[in-house]
Amino acid sequence: MEDVLTKPIPAVAAVRENKKKETVKKVIIICSKGTLEDVYAALIMANGALADGRDAKMFFTFFGLDAISKKKADHLHTATVGNSAFMPAMPTMMGGLPGFEAFASHMMQKQMDKLDMPHVTEFIQMIDAAGGEIFACKLAADMFKLKKEDLLDEVKDIITVGEMYALADGEGAHFIFI
Question: Residues 58, 133: contact at Cβ < 8 Å?
């Protein structure tokens, strides 16, 4: 007699079979945050998609623009206040102490260096070289008074949200919001 927990469920089996037929061909990753951990999440997702043979486009908006700004790209910080996953045994107010964010960011970068993770600008160069496309949000760029020359050379263009949605045309795309 089959165990209830191991017995295949017909509906689930059908969904899995359809998933095998329908694979994601394109991802559009929207990065709206400028913290080290959020930017790296977006970069890793784009890099993974490209490595897996998928089309990857990145759209940086609001504080995510820091990741593609020539002045700030390699100087991002980790969030210490309001981030319950960061050192969970430590009270949140500790994260607000002067110098603590810089210390935490340094420690995070040191750990990433041990893992041989590329720095933000190098990661963006890798994504560009692999065929990924990188865009900046026009509204956010206007708000922060950023021009194309303020952004990394790999940034293809500054585009509107409507133009970002147009990137999804064709095969259809999956949007990932970070």
Answer: yes
**Local confidence pLDDT in tens for the 178 residues of the chain:** 455 555 566 665 565 565 555 678 899 999 999 888 899 999 999 999 999 999 999 999 999 999 999 999 988 877 655 555 555 545 555 555 556 556 565 666 677 667 777 889 999 999 999 999 999 999 999 999 999 999 999 999 999 999 999 998 877 789 999 9
Half-sphere exposure of 29 (CA within 13 A, CB side): 26
CATH architecture of 26-177: 3-Layer(aba) Sandwich (3.40)
pTM attached to this predicted model: 0.76
Helix%, strand%, coil% for the chain, nearest 5: 45, 15, 40
SS3 assignment, position 92: helix
Domain assignments of the chain as residue spans, ordered by start: 26-177
Residue ranges of the alpha helices (H) in 52-170?
Answer: 100-114, 120-129, 138-143, 161-166
